[in-house]
Amino acid sequence: MNGNNLLDDAHVVRYVKPTSRHEDGSVDGSAFRLRSGDNGLSVNWLEYFRDLTKAQQLDEVRRLSRITMRKRGCLAELGVGATKQYSPELTALRFVHKPLATENGYEADPSHSEITGLPQGDSPQAALIGDLIAESIQAIHPAIIDE
Q1: pLDDT of residue 62
Q2: Strand runs (DSSP E) across the chain, as ranges?
Q3: E strand or H helix that includes residue 16
Q4: Quick one: which of 30, 32, 69, 106 is 20 to 30 A from 18 by CA?
């Protein structure tokens, strides 16, 4: 399914760093803005791990992550169809399956996907789209589970 759009009933999670969270625990729209030079936002497709429970799917995402997750960070869950339908400004978004190969000592991440169709930079349009995506979050999960 590499390169294919995820179906509207799919769910993805994006790691949100602590500095992109508000005091009440909600997520700031800046977590959903493209960095300079990026074409898409990294997310993980939960249903790739279809035979696992939600908790196990999230554990796999944490295990395969190539970024350092922080305790005050979180995994923000989006419903693909629900996010695109949240506002007319979001209908152009694409959620694309883009697995990562084994590389530089990292295990392959078959659930890796990207959100594309986002405006570049720190423009007012990019801020609006980021805020709308943040408003469409369906669940917030801990980035790190205490053992």
Answers
A1: 97
A2: 11-16, 41-45, 74-79, 94-97, 112-116, 139-142
A3: strand 11-16
A4: 106
